[in-house]
Predict the structure.
Amino acid sequence: MLTGPAAWFSALAAMARKELTIMLRYPVEFVASFAQVFIVVIVLTLAGLMFSRGGARPSAANSPVAGLVVYGFILFLFLSDTLWNIGYNIRREQKQGTLEQLYMSPASKFASLVSRISLTLVWMGLASVIVAVAMSAMIGRLPFANLPLGVFLLVMALSGTFGTGFAFAALTLRVRETAQTVVNLVQFSFMVVCAPFFPFSALPMWLRYVSYALPLSYAVDSFRSTLMGYPPGFPELAPIGVEIVIVTAFGLLMPGLGYWLYRQEEDRARRRGSLSEY
Amino acid sequence: MTATIRPSFRQKLSAALAETWLRLLNISRYPGQLALEIIIPIVFAAMPMLLGRATAGANAAANFQANTGTSNYVAFLLIGSNTFTIVSSAFWHIAYWLRFEQETGTLESIYLTPTTSMTLAGGVALYSVVRGLTSALLAYILGCLIFRVDPFAGDVLLALLFILIGLIPLYGVAFLFGALVLKVKESNALVGLMQWVVSFLMGIFYPVAVLPPLVRLLALLFPPTWMVNGVRSALLGMGFFFGKWYLDIAVLMAFALSVPLLSFWAFNRVEQGVKRNEGMGEF
């Protein structure tokens, strides 16, 4: 095993470059993914604005609706990509028959997992900034407050979903193709229970209890409430201090737990000789 | 000397129906996926509904009426999301059929059979109509029942007429898109983008009147826009583009006559080009 930070970063850079090379081979997909993000936000924001007094005309009254949708969607993008991409890439290596060879190499396994989403994060970050600017130009200025705390909450939420992504990668090694269905179901449930596109107050009470039990709900609530400058009624699930503690604990603990689960499952797959099976 | 035997209409119909049956049989193996197709449009429509109710409170229906022309936002949004299901099905099924055959290496073999690609594509389109329309109708009725709205209010027969006529130009556009997939090959990205462009242009959750003039003009050149507005006007009484239902139907009929001809021509041209150059087997 190559050890030390230099070897780790070198392995990460090499693997990220490989991902970039693959990405650049599909330019249409590259551009389409960007345009898609933009259109989804416009469609959902226009839908929300049909319920506001001034409709879709640019106005300061549109800001809360636009803030809810745009910030919720940005977090949804980051989280759903982080959650699934690690497991998806493991599955791709399995299908291509290169996963076993990868594990024969002395490179860091952790770097290998992280490299799967490093490019996506950069790409999504860029897309988010452009979407936010474009939406401000189209329907009125987005509420934009407490940027440092907002970035901190985003980083912690991402770190937590990194960990959850490792756990999903472990699940992929165990259940193989069924993992795709499980992830679809989880993403779908996330869209409802973690309320990235609407306030939690819109959920029926029994469903809100499920939201209370999930750290990701606090990530969504605290992130958008912070960037919107805590308008009346926000954050909705708990006082902001409590939400920051929950999101920070999620961000610090989940990567360790997720990676531990992944290693357990990897060892099991090695012992059973099922690493390259799919 | 070799003689080319041209298949009769009966034989072509048999080939197309066999293709339809094959796909229906295949999808019947995945009941979970079919159930999701009914649930997804309901949840999709529920997103703006929940957002609107939470942000506008008691004024939600009144504000919605002022912006769209109807206070029945549940039906308005469900019609949008379910028409979107029909439109997405058309694009996905045609594009994915071509791409799947390309990837599995069977597209070239299909071109060696005595039938034509258009015959088989017709079979795929029929399968797509059955699947998309069934899911959309069930999702609309179920969604209306969940949100306690009468699904059969308004002129249901006229709404169905708009859908049935609108399907013809819709599949014409889907074939045009199929030609693009045949050429560019990256079907997933293209379909993913296309279905959102379509949803934006046809006014999935809002009337196209809110779009800027140039975009609105573009939207009106797109048949699904007329389909979704026709269905909404028939069921919710929001007002047809030309004031009378038969004028809007006439526009859809004009699309139904012209778009398939254009798309068959374009598809054939791309097909010939691909055959002459890289060949159908490359992906």
Remarks:
- Residues 5-272 of chain A form one domain.
- Residues 63-96 of chain A form the longest helix (34 residues).
- The CA atoms of residues 16 and 22 of chain A lie 10 Å apart.
